[in-house]
Amino acid sequence: MITRWVVRRLDDRLGFSPLARSGLNKVFPDHWSFMMGEIALYAFVYLVVSGTFLALFFDASLAETVYEGSFQPMRGTTVSAAYASTVSLSFDVRLGLVMRQSHHWAALLFIGAIVVHLARIFFTGAFRRPRGINWLVGVTLLLLAIVNGFAGYSLPDDLLSGTGLRVANAVLLSIPVVGSWLAFAVFGGEFPGEQVVGRLFIVHVLFVPALITALITAHMAILTRQKHSQFPGPGRTDTNVVGSRLWPGYAVRSLGLLCAVFAACLLLGGAVQINPVWVWGAFESGYTTGPAQPDFYVGWVDGALRLFPAYEPVVFGHVLPSVFLPAVVLPGVTFLALYLWPFLERLVTHDSNEHQVLERPRERPVRVAIGVAALTFYGLLLVSFGLDVVTRYTGIPVFTLLAVARIAVLVLPFVTGAIAFVLARALRDSGADGVLALRASDLRAALRRQSRPAARPAAQSAVPEPLPDHIPVEAGPVP
Amino acid sequence: MTPRPSAAAERAVAACFLIATGGSVAFVVAYVVNAGPQWFGGLLAMAFAGLALGLILWAGHLLPTGTYVEQRPPMAPPRREQTAFLDGLDRGGDRTPGLLRRTLVLAMLALGAAAVVPLRSLFPLRIDPREELRRTPWRDGSRVVTKDGQPVRADDVEVGAFLTVFPEGHTTADDATAVLLRLEPGDLDRASGEPTVGGGLIAFSKLCTHAGCPVGLYEQTTRVLLCPCHQSVFDVLQGARPVSGPAARPLPRLPLSIDGDGDVRAAGDFRGQVGPTFWRSV
User: Fold this and answer.
1) CA angle (B154, A286, A291) in 5-degree steps
2) Average pLDDT of B196-207?
3) Closest CB from B52, B73, B217 relative to A290
4) Most B CBs within 10 Å, among A21, A98, A385, to test the B interface
5) Structure confidence by residue, pLDDT tens digits, A440-460
6) Residue of A35, A180, A199, A203 to mutate for B, most B C-beta atoms under 10 A
7) Count of A–B CB contacts within 8 Å?
8) d(Cα B11, Cα A411) in Å, to the nearest integer?
């Protein structure tokens, strides 16, 4: 075999085979929910590949140019080079439109997968020691992914993303003391300025992707070093990992997942239109599109901007802009809470032991309640950012919808949180397989009881019962 | 416990790989004949989906998966090892004079501060944002023009009209964007406090005082301006006061005059800060 020949020659010079062999034998636990992070990773790979293609044709400049491409309604009009090149790479570069649309879809998939991955980590307690460090890396990755999504979305200099940049400008301006300086630094002067697209471009294709790449590397290095956590089950303890070996089973399956992610992005990119900038038109001072919705990953902030009351107090002799609380403080508090969660929880549980076996969500009803309440809150903010579209299709006045949403966003999280708490407690105490298997008596018991009995064992993992056919992975020298 | 290779699984995996091959070949053909984005995306997706399915079936049916056990030694090395490493880090440290440490930290901090200052180069040094944000290109006597630079004659603005206007020579100045409206004669009494010219002409900044979006909709029946971004509503008959939505300040009014030729002109800059509020002293 030629491969054997090549590997031998390389190994003679580099001496990697003992380490690489233990790498091949590395065990990964099997569970469908562990694929979310992989999906995010592969979406990022797709973003790099498709983004490289786009960068070959995109011109990140606000210089005025006359569009001469094949899109008839626009021919002869004077637009920015950024807008003209976006339309050109969509219509005149073969495969360009598929790459542009699939790049956008991949970005939505990337951030969506990160959020689901985060929820999985949260509800199963995978952030507990020793994984707090990787939780911090992961939350930073989510933040960077959102920043890069917004930067990329703003590049084409179309009327819709220009409106998004207007709001971003307002958000920067609202920051006390330094706001106006920050906004001018980003835009190169007063909005719209002439610099922002060039600056966002370098942020979008170099600064943030480089940071994301570095942090993904750290994320996976830490994962490899600490080994993957696993769900409770027969033979699974805090001192072992039960699952498939990296080579070949796990690697081949994961490669299949990569191909599936690529297939999904390409299918969406070819078949489902997204962000048709030629419909929105070029950015123009004084005009906007209506309705105007950003991508979902910033939609929750936009929803908060719509719901927050008209409140502009005077603080220290200065006007505190009305967008400051919903668009700066709320996202700030959100990410602060995410960053601090493992440490806040430890303050309450006093549990600083190492955990390799995950918890089922039901084992922590309070955590489930907080998680479900948070998902409800941010979900409702996300719904609120599209209420004017709901009006368009249902005819219900948008002000009625906004009034309802203002109340719902404050009340419903408590309702869903309480329901989740009771269900989790009923599941925990009854041992039922799922919510549908609960009996009325289980629910009544969960509602009545004050706290869980202390006698209950922590998890099944405390009693290791080896599987009859488990195969220990050899780690030592070759016999 | 290697699963016995099953002939059926092998055939299925091979079929998937053949589908993937077909997708790639068909994509090349589609590219050459320029079949269109649906074909490009669909056929490439077919190639990757075939590979995906084949690989997943292969891993699931023909490769050993599950129930391998690897021991997981505790993360923390023995205390002794840690101490030895830390001692190594400290090598020579106990003989470093405190003065050197303190001045080194000082030098680093100074360098860090010096590295931040050039960020000011991101916009022209002569500009003070707080001054720029408070004024627009409108001056007393600025001729009111439309986006394409046409002067606006007072008589040409009809009742119910909603014109986006700029000061002459500044039709791309975003902060100067204004809306020019003509109120109905009957409205003039209701809007008694509003200084109109030419029998009902009135102008406001077009930038929403909430997040700075152009207030793009004028509902003539209710005499309100509506922002499409976050649904702020401004009552034209009450000096563009916000009556609903998240905006907290009225749209600043642009004072108007009409010159001898019947053209609309500005009688000064906006009465108030245009666009989104920034952190400013009252």
Assistant:
1) 115
2) 90
3) B217
4) A98
5) 888 888 888 655 554 444 444
6) A180
7) 308
8) 56
Quote the pTM value: 0.94
* Interstrand relation of B68-71 and A471-472 (parallel, antiparallel or unpaired): parallel
**Percent of chain A with pLDDT strictly greater than 70:** 94
Q: How confident is the model at residue B183 (pLDDT cuts 50, 70, 90)?
A: confident
Contacts of A169 in chain B (CB under 8 A): 212, 276
How many angstroms separate the CA atoms of B40 and A95, rounded? 7
Q: Is the CB of residue B150 less than 8 Å away from at least one CB of chain A?
A: no
d(CA B239, CA B234): 8
Task: Report how far apart, in Å, the C-alpha atoms of B148 and of each of A283, B145, B163, B169 are.
Answer: 15, 8, 12, 10
Query: CB-based contact (8 Å) between A12 and chain B?
Result: no
Model confidence at B16, pLDDT cuts 50, 70, 90, reads very high
Partners of residue A315 on adjacent β-strands? A318
* 59-78 in chain B: CB under 8 A from chain A: 59-60, 63-75
* Lowest-confidence segment of A304-308, A382-386, B38-42, B60-64 by average pLDDT: B60-64
Asked if A406 reaches chain B (Cβ–Cβ under 8 Å), the answer is: no
- DSSP per-residue codes, B25-72: HHHHHHHHTT--HHHHHHHHHHHHHHHHHHHHHHHHHTS--S-EEEE-
CB contact under 8 A, A190 and B277: no
The dihedral built from the CA positions of residue A54, A58, A60 and A62, taken in this order, carries a sign that is negative
Mean of all residue pLDDT scores within chain A: 92
Measure Cα distances from A370 to A119, A366, A418, B108, B157 in Å: 12, 6, 9, 43, 57
Q: Which residue of A has its CA nearest to B281?
A: A318
The C-alpha atoms of residue A68 and residue A52 are separated, in whole angstroms, by: 24
Residues 313-372 of A with CB under 8 A from B: 314, 317-323, 326-327, 354, 356
Determine contact, residues A306/A293, Cβ cutoff 8 Å.
no
How do beta strands B241-244 and B264-267 pair? unpaired
Using a CB–CB cutoff of 8 Å, tell me whether B54 touches chain A: yes
* DSSP H or E stretch at residue B179: strand B178-182
Between vectors from CA B199 to CA B194 and to CA B204, what angle results, nearest 5°?
Answer: 45
Tracing tokens 């719209």 back to the chain, one arrives at A192
d(CA B102, CA A338) in angstroms, rounded, equals: 35
